[in-house]
Amino acid sequence: MEAILLTILRAVIAFLLLLVVARFIGRKAISQMTFFDFTVAISLGSVTANLALGSQSTSVDVGIIIIVFAILAIVTSLIAMKSIRARKIIDSEPIAVIVKGELVKENMQKIRMTLPMLTSLLREKKVFNIMDVEYALIENDGKLSVLLKSNKQPATPFDMGIGTPYKGLTTELIMDGKLLENNLYAVGKDVTWLNNEMKKRGITTVKDIFFAALDSSGNLYISLGLKPPETPGQYGIE
User: Fold this and answer.
1) Which of 13, 103, 119, 201 is least enclosed, having the fewest CB within 10 Å?
2) Which CATH number fits domain 171-223: 1.10.260.40, 3.40.50.1820, 3.40.140.10, 3.30.240.20?
3) H or E, element range at 221
């Protein structure tokens, strides 16, 4: 029993240490990680695992540590959901690096972001001129959110006073030759309507349909699924 409690204690210490170190290292999206960042993350994980397991570990210890880590992760998430202050400590919060067109030097230094890094992230957002940016924030996951200046944003139908029809989600009706009846009735249609639509397209049975969906405008999309080409280049692909 004493050995189990010691294993649990090591797991808790390792988890808390990992949380603290990760919090201070800073935020970076996986796509932004360099080879050095990746190596550091792997090494940090290995060191944490060794700390949790100890010098003489067994399969029981490994199982206990996995369970403890899972419980701590769930508890941490619940605490973050309930408390704004805890959420700021655990997950941090978005940090503004550009405010009203001005670079926020202190915030960039806080998250160790250089100007080349910022301009690179802006280019990924198809923003090639930093002067076009009104606000830019680094989110909790390390990604960049950008708000362009009003005169640099693309015009929308609303800006031009043009009304547009409502567009909602597309509803799947048939998948892999199987009718999704609940979805069909949810959009106000029935089997009779579907059979009539199939007859218009010369389709006799639902089993012949690979995929069918209805959009919010009432347009029905049906795909029978392409069969393997009998000759090379039959579908225009060599």
Assistant:
1) 201
2) 3.30.240.20
3) strand 220-223
Nearest alpha carbon to residue 146 among 163, 162, 132: 132
Give per-residue pLDDT as tens, 177-189: 999 999 999 999 9
* Residue 174's pLDDT band (cuts 50, 70, 90): very high
Q: Provide the whole-model pTM.
A: 0.57
DSSP H helices, the chain, are: 2-25, 35-53, 59-82, 84-91, 105-110, 115-124, 181-186, 191-200
In the numeric block, the tokens 């059979």 are attached to: 195
Render pLDDT for 112-163 as a digit per residue (tens, 0 to 9): 888 998 999 999 999 999 999 999 999 877 789 999 998 898 888 888 888 8
Structure tokens at 237: 């692909």
Q: Which residues pair with 102 in a beta bridge?
A: 99
| CATH number of the 95-152 domain | 3.30.240.20
* Amino acid (one-letter) located at 7: T
Separation CA 113–CA 37 (nearest Å): 14
